[in-house]
Amino acid sequence: MAKSLPPLTWFRAFEAAARNLSFTAAAEEIGLTQSAVSQQVKSLEVRLRVALFIRQARGLSLTDDGRRLLPQVAAALDVLAAATDPFDVGTPENFLTVATSISVAQWVIAPYLPDFTKRHPDIHLRILSATWPDDFHSAQADVEIRFGSQKQVGKNALLLTPNRLIALKSPTLHGNIGNLPLIEAVGTSGGWKAWGETHGGGFHPEFFVDSYGMALNLAVQGNGVALVSELLADHALHKNQLIRAHTASIPGKEGYYLSADESSRPAVLFRDWLLERLSI
């Protein structure tokens, strides 16, 4: 039976932290948060049953076990990098990679994508689903659309609008917010509690999902009223898949932020096209 190995990401976090002697510097290098790097290293230490670092107020130092492990891990990562080199033929001039959540891909990009491909038939598009910082780092995309706050996504990212939360339901569903099941996307700062604080009343969701996209899917099928980003709802509203369950809205404390590689012609064309579509 093959021996079970710790995840590769743990070794990558250890190698970067050991080389920099800093969880913060390692996090910046590999595109994770400092706490994520620290947790991955801790998980590796628990798995190997040894301490790899001495954690001090002014930084890190390697233990004897850490010093023994580092050259072996570094060599293994080098072997993996060399093994993938023959497959890395570079990025073709007209090849475009977009990394974003499934929600954005399904509800914002896909409905209008035929227009983009018609305008730019020479561009070959790849869309990768990405949610966490590590996903975006691995994707190495030309265009990224991330969900979060300005601080989380970086100062050069552009907030996509509209960025308010609205209540939606299926046209076949009769009733109002007060007597219909409520659908909430967890993991965001705004929800039905914030709705009640703004517009009055107590609201208690019956369905909990992990994304606005899933909330929209449930609402389209008549399962209740979803409180979601207006940005994602535009196409469904225009196609009458959904209607407003209430005329009011609340601000979105997080949003969807777009960044594009300015040196990539396809990336710039895609960014400009998407911004144009969202302004219509």
TrEMBL record:
**SUPFAM superfamilies in the cross-refs:** Periplasmic binding protein-like II, Winged helix' DNA-binding domain
A Pfam match: HTH_1
- What species is given as this protein's source? Parasedimentitalea maritima
Q: What family, per the record?
A: Belongs to the LysR transcriptional regulatory family.
Keyword annotations:
DNA-binding, Transcription, Transcription regulation
- Domain called HTH lysR-type: residue spans: 6-63
This chain's protein is named: LysR family transcriptional regulator
InterPro entries annotated for this entry?
A: LysR-type_TF_proteobact-type, LysR_HTH_N, LysR_subst-bd, WH-like_DNA-bd_sf, WH_DNA-bd_sf
